Predict the 3D structure of the following.
Amino acid sequence: MSALALLQNISNEADYLMTPQGPVPKHCNEFWTAKQRQMHSLHYANSYRASFKPELPEFFINKYTKPGDTIGDPFGGRGTTVLQAALMNRKGLSNDVNPLSERLAFPKINPVSIEEISDRLDKIDLSTPIDLSREDDMSMFYHADTYREIINLRNYLRTHRDNIDRFIEMTALSRLHGHSNGFFSAYSFPQISIPKVNQAKINQTRGVEPDYREIKSRILKKAKTTLKSGGLKDLQRLARFHRLTTGDSRDLKGWESESVNLVVTSPPFLNQVDYVQDTWIETWFCDIPRESVEDKIVQTPDLQKWTDFISATLSELHRVLAKGGLVAMEVGEVRYQGVILNLDEILVNLTCQRQYNMHQFKVREVYVQSQQFTKLANCFKVENNKLGTNTNRIVLMEKI
Ligand SMILES: C[S@@+](CC[C@H](N)C(=O)[O-])C[C@H]1O[C@@H](n2cnc3c(N)ncnc32)[C@H](O)[C@@H]1O
């Protein structure tokens, strides 16, 4: 059965989905707050495309696990799940095919103090002369003197990798481009690395050239904000229990079989985000070859391929989950061949089909979290989505 045909198998009733496996309760509510930046400040260290709010893993970790349990995320991104697990006294496992994820997640679960960061920044020499004609042209983003400092920091970080250096790296990554004076670049987008030609156009339209931005003070200021919630000692104490891996979600090397109690995750949606292009300045700063990521990240506009990919990932999750373990998978709604598809319905369906669910999960519940519309609109009709909702659709599956 094709992926799209799967949709004909279920019907949307008031409080449940009718599926071949039986009725599945569907909860529509505002399960967590719409307020911005309410959680631990470490969560807001970096912007990341398509990241979920930390309230989402908090909700599922709280509801379905106890302290000491293991929480995993095969599509870790900026490390939201692993950090939230760590903050809630659980063991965290995080994986992503992009090595950038590990650079962003590691310092959050291995934080250092602001004094250590300040002392280290004092010691790093960013004034070594650099022949910019031998470097990549980044003149549309950075003033030459800013760029020299960035390259010196990058060179330093190639050979200095303790937890303080890594925290500085994560913080510098968050400062590479953005719209305010706190960033290293001329006015740009904070969330995505835009192409050089687009940046040149922005400069032209605004009639500006990149001005000098001294980078150490900006790193220190951002690090202070990132660390303001405190609790470092607890995180440091638990750090050795967490693990970060880099690889494909269909083959989670380093994840032991039957070791995970709950997975909270969000896979790449049907070609919604270009994770490679949108992080090119970060991967450049970290010396991650673009080609090494490009072939591996799954970014497909093809629903059948997406369904096969999710199905194979579920098989691997089945292996790593403990008996009775759960997967909370967040998917969104996407425009596909001119219609809006709710990917939770696709997910529920594939879980009900032997063809896609060889290892047997049972869908327990579907959660629809939405902040902007009435419950009914959020749950069952998609017209509003055209206006751009802030809806999370989470399918909760149990290993059987
Ligand atoms: C929706 S984002 C997850 C964001 C994350 N929940 C957070 O809060 O930061 C999806 C992630 O999947 C990763 N990804 C894409 N293809 C992958 C694959 N085949 N295996 C593992 N990760 C993959 C991308 O690099 C991206 O970080």
Q: What stands out?
A: The CA atoms of residues 97 and 247 lie 4 Å apart. The chain has two domains: 5-99+244-273+297-330+347-399, 114-226. The radius of gyration is 22 Å.
